[in-house]
Amino acid sequence: MAKSPPSKPLVADDRPLRTRPRKPRDPSQPRLPLDPMPARIEPCLALLKPRPPIGPDWIYEIKWDGYRIAVHLNNGNVRILTRGGHDWTHRFPAIEADAKRLGVGSAILDGEAVVLDEQGRPNFGQLQQSLGGRGGKLNSGASIMFAFDLLYFDGHDIRSLELTARRYFLRSLLKDAQGSIRLSEDIEGDGREIFAAACAHGLEGVIAKYKDSPYRSGRLGEWVKVKCVQSDSFMIVGYEHSLSARAGIGSLLLAARKGNDWIYVGSVGTGFNERNAEYLRKTLDRIKRKTPPVEYGGRRKNLVWVQPTLIAEIEYRAWTHDGKLRHASYKGLREVQDNAGVYEIVPGP
């Protein structure tokens, strides 16, 4: 359980935190003890590791498979921003409505927007479908937010507090919440056992967080992610045309980034259904090019090369010795405004 901060607790009983909306700080009263509300905060990112850190200084959470979002609530006005800072408030109406019902004057919540499948597990493909696919215009009423951090609360910037204190306030704010904004529960215990249990339940992995860390933007190692199955973003650079495959796409050709170049990392031929295959074919055929954007030494024929503009989320098991994806499966296209980073190959020593 997260311990309360050393100062006087804001919660006197078991009821959720409730405050009155605060008016914006008057510039003529600069000493008023309120912190300006940030327009946007660069997110804290998790560092990928092969094994979870262990010890009493770490807590663990489920790694949610969706879109990273920040919910800004200020005197009844709500903004929902993506990781890249784009305003998607209109795309998550249920989350927006529940944010207005939190009963706090001002807050910034950090979390993940997901759609749960029949087994209660996050499903990235269903999330994409609910939004209408890449570039879609649909509003995802099925999406819910799992909040895992609180950065600003009731006129105070609390990023400098340790994680356990921020989680204490977040837990009180979201007490018993079962709507479209829910608490991402933290778990204490042996990180190896927690990770094994997450994998056994078909989840993507876990996030380990250092208990005493402040909230710092960037990928600094105070948050660590460990994946049961690898899932990363790759650039689509072409496709293999097939008369027998859905929409004529036998497989997608993928690339990773290495410095300023694109490096071919193999293909993916599973994970498509009739609907997304048709969309892919129409979209890819609009960005055809005559020459390959990557160095390709394969012998396959009927290849169609495209401009490197579409980013696909790919699930895979491992890498081959020659740098190709093993057992890859297509999960969906990333949104341009999602600011997903294409997998980067780090040069060797």
From TrEMBL:
Keywords: Ligase. Its EC number is 6.5.1.1. One of its GO terms (molecular function) is ATP binding. Residues 1-37 are annotated as: Disordered. GO terms for biological process: DNA recombination; DNA repair. InterPro entries: ATP-dep_DNA_ligase, DNA_ligase_ATP-dep_C, DNA_ligase_ATP-dep_cent, LigD_ligase_dom, NA-bd_OB-fold. It catalyses: ATP + (deoxyribonucleotide)n-3'-hydroxyl + 5'-phospho-(deoxyribonucleotide)m = (deoxyribonucleotide)n+m + AMP + diphosphate. It is an enzyme of class 6 (ligase). Residues 145-227 form the ATP-dependent DNA ligase family profile domain. Transmembrane segments: none annotated. PANTHER family: DNA LIGASE 1, DNA LIGASE 1/3 FAMILY MEMBER. Belongs to the ATP-dependent DNA ligase family. This is DNA ligase (ATP). It comes from Rhizobium tibeticum.
